[in-house]
Amino acid sequence: YMKFMFLDPPPGPEWTYKDFDFDTDPAKTVKNAAKINAINPDLRKLKKRRAKILHFHGWGDSTVNAQVSVDYYESVLRRMGRKQTMEFYRLFMVPGMFHCGGGVGCSSVDWLAPTVDWVEKGVAPQKLIGARVEDGEVRRTRPLCPYPEVAVYKGTGSTDEAANFTCAIPRSRSRQ
Fold first, then answer.
1. Element (H or E) spanning 34, and its range?
2. Quick check: helix, strand or coil at residue 26?
3. If you compute the radius of gyration of the chain from its CA atoms, what whole number of angstroms results?
4. Residue 140 near residue 132 (C-beta atoms within 8 A)
5. Which has the closest alpha carbon to 140: 117, 167, 109?
6. Which of 98, 95, 92 is nearest to 69 (CA)?
7. How far is residue 115's CA from residue 27's CA, in Å, rounded to a whole number?
8. Contacts from 161-168 at CB under 8 Å and sequence distance 24+?
9. Alpha helices for 38-129 (secondary structure H)
10. pLDDT score for 48
């Protein structure tokens, strides 16, 4: 379905990526790219309609570099200000998660319930709990913190239990 999203006019059902013409087709991507690329940091219209964004990205994503999400989020912060942004947009970076899930991190997360609570009850997520599930069994849990915070071990208890971590801005970032 992607071929119909990025070319204008749409090429038709017989078209494959092998048919892409590097001399003429790039110009056909410009119109739709402006609609679907997440590059505009001005989200005032979205905020005005009381929308909420719960954005997540895995640090282990080899398909889309995780820094792209960080850079975009920070551009929204610069454009709209931290207070305004935090009212409707949170970024959660997931250590060890691949593209949209999987990986060695705690990538099993209920993204829906916190989003519903935020939209319907006005309760913004302060942290989420991710789980590392192997063979149907939870092996580890971790708090997933809104960027730029990260999970920091409290110093006691099992490092496999989310309760033994807190969300904090790393010292290297707090000095900036």
1. helix 30-36
2. helix
3. 19
4. yes
5. 109
6. 92
7. 37
8. 162/129, 162/130, 167/126, 167/127, 167/143
9. 44-48, 66-80, 82-86, 112-121
10. 96
Only one residue has tokens 């829906």, namely 112
CB count in 10 Å sphere of residue 10 = 13
Residues paired with residue 144 on neighbouring β-strands, in sequence order: 128
Residue keyed to tokens 């992607």: 2
In Å, the largest CA–CA distance within the chain is: 61
* Dihedral angle of Cα 25, 65, 103, 101, to the nearest 10 degrees: -60
Residue 1 has which token pair? 């379905």
Going from the first residue of the chain to its last (176 residues), give the mean pLDDT of each consecutive group of 10, the final group possibly shorter. Answer: 68 85 89 80 96 97 94 97 97 96 95 96 97 96 97 97 96 61
Query: How high is the pLDDT of residue 1?
Result: 45
